[in-house]
């Protein structure tokens, strides 16, 4: 029989402990079995080590045997420098534990569940392709997502917004969350976020003026040094347009127009949601908008589908939640973007059906966001009609 904990929650029984321990171990084993070998973490370590010993060469070094460069702002190298000091297995173990902890934090801010259920959901969500890719590559996406959710949804800390600004200093896409703070007139948080981001830029100039100048003048707009825009993993507007056009030049003017339209629409929608006390929905919409608008949004960047999925399901009737939930999260477990031929510019020869599969993340997100918009628009209309009826009666 399950007893009650002092806080009123059921104690985690021995059977539950064993079951979820197995789930967590299985999740870690799944990640370790992935063929990516913590590739991005190795690049982070390279950047951190270079910053410590030869800071001016931060963007000149390449990972031996593969040739990948460090592509993040200088502040990112500062943050990962401690991981370059310890042996690779130790760094990989600590990074994985930190990422899994952040995955738990993401779910904790997205849905209300007992701790043992949160642990189970966290373990199960390691099967999501963006999550398992993030863990396999040793990417930073789960960490940034958790930091931003904790910062923006936590209203009790005095420096709210600061951590979002620091996150933007590590990876530029979180800048959209500073725009969210501005359009919702959260001036104090916006000031902290802006100051945090500006501080990361200044710190970069203090540590390595030449490397920082090179990044902000030359590299920040150069997407070619990051990877192939048309590669199947790039689930952004730019990636989709590049594959549709069948060449590697990117989306061009059409992409810029789509980015502007997406940013304006997303921020307007997010503002409406925030003012209706739907903060998780507002932040999740901005997270997806950042993925749409970024020149390159690799599939492992798409961890924002976790909180957005919760928002989507909460807007549905109870009978529809299970099938839609299976469909939404199931899509990201299966990862159909990898089914058509890819690499070596084979994406440029996709058929119409292969385009649908290969761009499935962005297409599914667009449909879901549009459906959510229709839902809230109807809710607003119904609310207005009821208020008018109440006033006239």
Automatic annotation (TrEMBL):
<feature type="transmembrane region" description="Helical">
    <location>
        <begin position="253"/>
        <end position="274"/>
    </location>
</feature>
<comment type="similarity">
    <text>Belongs to the glycosyltransferase 87 family.</text>
</comment>
<feature type="transmembrane region" description="Helical">
    <location>
        <begin position="359"/>
        <end position="377"/>
    </location>
</feature>
<feature type="transmembrane region" description="Helical">
    <location>
        <begin position="189"/>
        <end position="207"/>
    </location>
</feature>
<protein>
    <submittedName>
        <fullName>Mannosyltransferase</fullName>
    </submittedName>
</protein>
<feature type="transmembrane region" description="Helical">
    <location>
        <begin position="161"/>
        <end position="183"/>
    </location>
</feature>
<keyword id="KW-1133">Transmembrane helix</keyword>
<feature type="transmembrane region" description="Helical">
    <location>
        <begin position="280"/>
        <end position="313"/>
    </location>
</feature>
<dbReference type="GO" id="GO:0016757">
    <property type="term" value="F:glycosyltransferase activity"/>
</dbReference>
<dbReference type="Pfam" id="PF09594">
    <property type="entry name" value="GT87"/>
</dbReference>
<feature type="transmembrane region" description="Helical">
    <location>
        <begin position="75"/>
        <end position="98"/>
    </location>
</feature>
<keyword id="KW-1003">Cell membrane</keyword>
<feature type="transmembrane region" description="Helical">
    <location>
        <begin position="18"/>
        <end position="38"/>
    </location>
</feature>
<keyword id="KW-0808">Transferase</keyword>
<dbReference type="InterPro" id="IPR018584">
    <property type="entry name" value="GT87"/>
</dbReference>
<feature type="transmembrane region" description="Helical">
    <location>
        <begin position="320"/>
        <end position="339"/>
    </location>
</feature>
<keyword id="KW-0328">Glycosyltransferase</keyword>
<keyword id="KW-0812">Transmembrane</keyword>
<feature type="transmembrane region" description="Helical">
    <location>
        <begin position="110"/>
        <end position="128"/>
    </location>
</feature>
<keyword id="KW-0472">Membrane</keyword>
